Amino acid sequence: MIDEPPPQAALVAVAARYGVPPHEVAQVPGGVANHSFRLGPHLFLRVPRRGEEFLADLRKEAMVIPLARQAGVRTPAIVDFDESRTLVDSPYMVLERVPAPDLAQLDLRGDARAKALRELGRELALLHRIRRDSAGVPDGLPEDDLGDPFGEVDRMARDGYLDRGTADWLTDWFGRLGRRFPTEPEKVLLHGDVAPQNMLVDPADGTLRGVVDWGDACWAEPGMEFAKLSLFDVVTVLEGYREQSASWTDDGLEARILWYHLSWGLASAVRGRPQPDARHWTAPPVSRLLNVLRFFAASPPPRWAALS
């Protein structure tokens, strides 16, 4: 793997393979796992940064993106996944380029934002129809689970982050949430990093153009999918989700989602470090917990209010 972007000569060679002239190669700043480049108006190049985990994520994307597209999910198609290292000293992926900004770049509000979020919900419902026994599903995708918030709360109390009364209250809350869903819920295919920066949106009307960055895809129960969205946005996403997935008619899904927001928020508050340059809203260590506080202080819908 390589830490620095590929040499210009290598980028020019890759572009030439796909009929793109050198002056139409442009690096896209940012990105934790990949160096990214626009190849003309229609293609997008991704080269993993140094580290086996980033290469593994790109290989995972090569497996998952075709499955998602087969299920009807709007995500750019893979044009090529080259592991030969003949042009670049690294595997790379070329995708179709969707000429739209991500939601994190936009100050999208009102009906336009709601449209994007509902459409996202419908896309996720299509994705979650994919089970391990679905046709064409490859081996090798990782699995994730609910985790152990009870142990986390107990450690926080022992280490002095919580008083015992607050720890007992949180333990009781997790217990009440857990009773609303089965201990062994069915696992489905998750995108794993559903967040505004991975939603490509038409700024004119909020149409969702694509969901990108599949490197965190895994098998897990559906509630985990919504853990990287603000709870205020989750409410609207679930409207679209339930239009496509009639199986979620009670508040079990909301209980699962709140479980993750609470447990991940507690862990981040203790072990997280400030990331002033990060784009995702959960980067500040206490943001997720404060989002839960704001959400429940703002008179949430009845399904959610019943969980407090």
UniProtKB/TrEMBL annotation:
Pfam families noted in UniProt: APH (PF01636)
Keywords attached to this entry: Transferase
Source taxon at top rank: Bacteria
InterPro entries: AGP_Transferase, Aminoglycoside_PTrfase, Kinase-like_dom_sf
Gene3D superfamilies: 3.90.1200.10
Single GO molecular function: transferase activity
Location of the Aminoglycoside phosphotransferase domain: 25-232
PANTHER family in alphabetical order: AMINOGLYCOSIDE PHOSPHOTRANSFERASE DOMAIN-CONTAINING PROTEIN, AMINOGLYCOSIDE PHOSPHOTRANSFERASE-RELATED-RELATED
Protein name in the entry: Phosphotransferase family enzyme
